[in-house]
Amino acid sequence: MKRILFQSKVALLAMSCALAPVASFAADSPIHGNIRVVIGSKSTGGDTYQAASIVSEALAKKLDTNIKVDAVGFSAAYQALKRVSSGNTIMIFHDQSYLGNLYKQAGYVDPFKEFIIGPTLATNPGNGYLVPKNSPYKTMDDILNAAGQGKTVRVAIQPGGVSEIGFTAMKNAVKLAYPGKEGNLVALNTGSQSDKNQTLFDGLSDVINGSVQANEQYTRLPSDDQKAMSFVWLTAKASTLSQANPQGMGETSRDELLQYASGLGVKIPMDAENDFTFDKEFFVIYNKKTSPEVIAYIDKALKEVFEEGEVIQTLKKSFFIPDFRTSTDAQTYLKAKRDSYAEIIENIDGK
User: Fold this and answer.
1) φ and ψ at 216, to 5 degrees?
2) Hey, what CATH topology would domain 129-262 get?
3) Strand pairing of 261-262 and 229-237?
4) Whose CB has fewer CB within 10 Å in the chain, the N or C terminal residue?
5) Where residue 24 falls among pLDDT bands split at 50, 70, 90?
6) Percent of the chain having pLDDT more than 90?
7) Of 77, 71, 74, 80, nearest to 43 (Cα)?
């Protein structure tokens, strides 16, 4: 009887252990309460919001907390970030955070000095430029040659960011082929993706900066539709774009998009030997006083999220390329990238 009772107790103990809740990742969290992710865009239809939402949803599950993405724009995002150092407010943005500073745009501080750069998350190989589907310009060569031959070509961009770095490269290409004619490429400075789109719908611009994620839908419209667009250039390296989901985005396959890739279907000379390319990358930014414990905690959580793989598939479905680096690695990588484009801007624009 004693033996039976002992065995029963062992069985009950084993059962209770099996039923006991497993400690969640959140048990050791140095962040108390919900997390707000502010992004440097005001658009909820652009690639910044899409990338931030995908990663934030996966991170929220891992941390067992609520994470809200707020599309407030870079200025309000910086202000919100400066107020909170606990990790309850973090920022997700992209290369515009340092490009805006290099272009000396108002409000763009040096993020490497004023904040802490966190992990990289994803690359958008679909950053690019589009024209109306009924435009006389069918290719980038058409656009550059038109400017070189004296026609004014209006390009809608958001100053100080990935829009402008591509526009700068366009001007440089005209300058190389038609010295003194680069001024015929005129920047139409605007704001979010929806604002840039609207300039095309209203006939105020000839070319706009856009993305595969935000604009592919318009490329499927018939040419007599006011909103119909066509891609003419994707700034990403062909090697980057080749890593994207083969299905592409919407009804446009990766192979179809490759014809617009820098250095492959499209060549934008940077000098006599090199073509211009630019990979748009998204990363986390922290308050300058955020503790190392918080940064390490989020690094660890994101590392596990990416290793588990579900977020990788979700990103690829939305035509992003997973691009996780820890904070330490990201800081080294992004500083080097910043410095390389600072040299390009100096050489091209003299800024």
Assistant:
1) -55, -35
2) D-Maltodextrin-Binding Protein; domain 2 (3.40.190)
3) parallel
4) N
5) low
6) 83
7) 71
